[in-house]
Amino acid sequence: MSAVEPIFSLQQGAVPLLVSLPHCGTLVPPSILHRMVPRAQALEDTDWHLAQVYAFVLELGASLIVPRFSRYVIDLNRPPDNAPMYEGVNNTGLCPERFFSGDVLYQPDQQPDRGEVSQRRERYWQPYHDALRGELARLKSAHGHALLLDGHSIKSELPWLFAGRLPDLNLGTADGATCAPSLRAALSQALQAQHDFTHVVDGRFKGGYIARHYGRPTENVHAAQLEMCWSCYMSEAAPYQLDPQRSARLAPLLHALVRTMLQWKPSDD
After folding, report:
1. How far separated are the first and last CA of the chain, in Å rounded?
2. Omega before 108 cis (within 30°)?
3. What domains lie within the chain, and their CATH numbers?
4. Displacement of CA 6 from its chain's centroid (Å)
5. CA-to-CA distance for 77 and 94, rounded, in angstroms?
6. Which of 149, 179, 193, 219 could serve as 183's disulfide partner, Cβ 3.0–4.6 Å?
7. Which residues contact 119 (CB under 8 A, 6 or more apart)?
8. Is residue 74 within 8 Å of 95, Cβ to Cβ?
9. Per residue in 91-118, pLDDT tens?
């Protein structure tokens, strides 16, 4: 792997919104992949196709940041000290050692040690977060406020992580801590205005590190996380193909949520 190989792509826009898709990367360096169990090659826990699903935000003038490397290398939505995001339930860590099924990801005695975790954090995690921080600062400087939408997707049923079936759309604001109350209410209303998809606000997924760390409404930076089930737009079975009919059905609602963020102003509170 070249030392100058890009870690992510960042396309800068002209409106106050940055969309982050931290789990859609699909590259794993061979030096890491060969230590994992063969099943890891399918990258089954990827947030599949989200760069394509969210490509429309560029036409609306938003910024878009997309990583190239898989969450199996490092989880960009976890804190750098690897503290668990959700207490009392199963979690995957900064450098995951388990699949979302709970099965082990690495072959025996091949897990990354503390030194390797530190190296991966410096090589892959830090540049992404430096870019996130810098882009939000640029947007706030240009517009007086900045908005962050952290986009995720997941299989609808994963017993090791949560009981039963997830709602289709899971909006997370850390119980209102990551954005202004009026923005949370506006996004919730946009979800309630449609009847094609089930939804919840601040349910099982309240927002990971990115939303919680960068969402600082008192500093005019407002963040929300949207976790949606794969079943909304793709097949949940390998090879995890995008479903044109499902994604076309989802698109109007995603457009509505993004427009809601762009139409919102800090003065609304």
Report:
1. 48
2. no
3. 8-268 (3.40.630.40)
4. 19
5. 8
6. 179
7. none
8. yes
9. 889 999 999 999 999 999 999 999 999 9
